[in-house]
């Protein structure tokens, strides 16, 4: 195929975005064992937990213990989600190489999700980003609902750009653009990337797809043909919505690797080790995870 | 997006390819009610059953009753799978607009599936195709394992061409090329279509993808960008392998429609009616079907 990159970087977000909505408690020692397995798959970036208020995300209430006890592979960058300076403090104490801040391109989604307007969010993130940079940490800015918002519908790329511009001014190192409700089709990906890649260097852009309607792999294919080389994904496709039992969540690392390796694109990640780590967390959650490749290979 | 067609034709193969491996018996009257629902979704082509020996496919042993009792919509073409002249006789008696014959591009898969070599298969199909054409019926030739064979591995497009050439010589009206084990990635689709579309008019080519590893929607996107405008799909993604419980089967009509309509491509098919017909057969089978869009919309 034309226009394919030689290699692609994957950030594994399963331990954070994947687990955060799970109702089944995964014991701290199992999380640690699992993240240690992930650290030995060849993955170079892992988001290991979230330092959001544990009342909001009880599934990740042990972020500090996890951060302190995982066995760090020097080849891997470990990051965590932080909502504010207090969260960053805990994250720094537990050990992080990177901090991820988050907000939405949609005013309504931002208010529903973090109880602030977009304009009220920037000063909070400014403090976090400054503190993290002062500690020599890498900062990623997650921007959610970049294609469609469950409240506002189709998003204008200009709204996305406004938020991205401001986050970059505040000092984030890169941006992860999220199809939060997994509704985008490849033409929407093209329309957004047309604008985004004229404005920012591609190395700064990570695409974050959910597979809610089965479009994620096609959206990733379209993204790489547009020059994107960085993606977030979640092992086994972990990460469904709590209000949609059984629905697919984040795009599965397993399926992304099947695509990329099939296209001859290098990732440095071992599919067999990913399969093993998928089966491990699947057994801890006691349910079948949505990744198609996981299921096909488990037979 | 560039190079997208204005419209695409979908053949619904759920009642045949979808049901054939199901262990749960769907009562004849439920099959009939379901096919009648499908007939009113805007779908123009339905493969309603198989006239293969009922001992081989017990799930479809009521093909004759189904064919005789469904309420035909004059806008819809009804076809059935036929293995030989005896099967065709039954199909004609039950009523068909089209007959589908089948064989494999792989010698080993052909032997395992129909107990004959590729060369021994042609004379059998010759008789079926002649008889069907004499009765004024439309004939489709299914060619399976066009990308990868579970026994022979990667298939050379030349082997596929050899079988396609011969089937067209024998008089089939069109060819459905199957990713039988759902293993292809988009670069394989391009490599095959490079050869196929130089040799045959695109109207004669139908692509038949399985979503076993989550690649089907990306493969369909690649196919339409290559000029293909005809696809087989199965409602709800029905059609898993009997030896892989829970594994995804045929690409889901629901997901294909979400892609195509999202890209602004017309199909004439109503997604809500498809959702309803999916929920109907899901309730008869007593299990959650693999279509991502079905699940997302069912919440």
TrEMBL record, chains A, B:
<dbReference type="Pfam" id="PF00682">
    <property type="entry name" value="HMGL-like"/>
</dbReference>
<feature type="compositionally biased region" description="Basic and acidic residues">
    <location>
        <begin position="1"/>
        <end position="15"/>
    </location>
</feature>
<dbReference type="GO" id="GO:0046951">
    <property type="term" value="P:ketone body biosynthetic process"/>
</dbReference>
<dbReference type="GO" id="GO:0006552">
    <property type="term" value="P:L-leucine catabolic process"/>
</dbReference>
<dbReference type="InterPro" id="IPR000891">
    <property type="entry name" value="PYR_CT"/>
</dbReference>
<keyword id="KW-0456">Lyase</keyword>
<dbReference type="GO" id="GO:0046872">
    <property type="term" value="F:metal ion binding"/>
</dbReference>
<keyword id="KW-0479">Metal-binding</keyword>
<comment type="similarity">
    <text>Belongs to the HMG-CoA lyase family.</text>
</comment>
<feature type="domain" description="Pyruvate carboxyltransferase">
    <location>
        <begin position="8"/>
        <end position="275"/>
    </location>
</feature>
<dbReference type="GO" id="GO:0004419">
    <property type="term" value="F:hydroxymethylglutaryl-CoA lyase activity"/>
</dbReference>
<dbReference type="InterPro" id="IPR043594">
    <property type="entry name" value="HMGL"/>
</dbReference>
<feature type="region of interest" description="Disordered">
    <location>
        <begin position="1"/>
        <end position="21"/>
    </location>
</feature>
<dbReference type="InterPro" id="IPR013785">
    <property type="entry name" value="Aldolase_TIM"/>
</dbReference>
<protein>
    <submittedName>
        <fullName>Hydroxymethylglutaryl-CoA lyase</fullName>
    </submittedName>
</protein>
